[in-house]
């Protein structure tokens, strides 16, 4: 459950989308932050071997593209499908990979995300938060000691967010989880590390290290993050100086 990225460079249409990106994560929860176009999704696609890249990417010491089998990926935009049930959505990828215990894996994954009771429901009937949890179960069912979650908190209501954060806390106990988010307010016990990207690694460290004004200024002009009793709270200067 370790991910090691060394000197990763991705060029698309002649432009450097990622340049000399290096970091390691081992059974940690890493929040991948950075502005639009910073290369966060591209980093995930490179780990999965879906874009051409230079550099070394290894999962549990496996650096060839078979490493992708050890990675669970939840993309930013989730297809609701039309006729699939929750069970089919979670079970079928594991079955198509001919995993002998596909049904047991799907069952366990659905229990982990607390959707087992809803397994016969059509996918389209789920709320956004439930759909996100179903997508996480789908990734868990095919493997996934390293989980890559692209914006799982987007479009999720506050109650769904609490449920998802609770699930993420559980998942990180036995896995390496990378999650992208533009929402930097979060409980202080969630992220072990913050990877602040802007095509290069701007900073990689603990939230206290990266959420400092000095580091954030390198990427965001008007953003501040305060550590409060509620966790890290992100405010922009228009809140700090109301009109
Ligand atoms: N298929 C592609 N061909 C060429 N350039 C691409 C392609 N996909 C993405 N890019 C470019 O790569 C850069 C990084 O995109 P990426 O989606 O990785 O950023 P991101 O940090 O995930 O952004 P966001 O926060 O908006 O989701 C962007 O400038 C984008 O235009």
TL;DR?
With 243 residues, this protein is α/β, with parallel strands linked by helices. Helices cover 29% and strands 30% of the residues. The chain has helices at residues 40-47, 86-96, 102-112, 128-141, 158-172, 207-210, 213-216, 237-240, and strands at residues 2-12, 15-26, 29-33, 54-59, 71-74, 146-150, 176-180, 193-198, 200-205, 223-228, 231-236.
Low-confidence stretches: none
Largest β-sheet summary: 6 strands, mixed
**Rg for CA atoms:** 18 Å
Number of strands: 11
CATH topology: Rossmann fold
Helix content: 25-40%
Instruction: Report strand %.
Output: 25-35%
Description:
This protein has helices at 40-47, 86-96, 102-112, 128-141, 158-172, 207-210, 213-216, 237-240, and strands at 2-12, 15-26, 29-33, 54-59, 71-74, 146-150, 176-180, 193-198, 200-205, 223-228, 231-236. The protein is α/β, with parallel strands linked by helices and 243 residues long. The chain has one domain (2-240): P-loop containing nucleotide triphosphate hydrolases (Rossmann fold). It has a 6-stranded mixed β-sheet with strand order 5-6-7-3-8-9, sandwiched between helices. Strands 2-1-4 form a 3-stranded antiparallel β-sheet, with helices on one face. A hairpin with a 2-residue loop joins β10 and β11. The structure holds adenosine-5'-triphosphate. Adenosine-5'-triphosphate is lined by residues 12-13, 17, 34, 36-42. Adenosine-5'-triphosphate (ATP) binds at residues 12-13, 17, 34, 36-42.
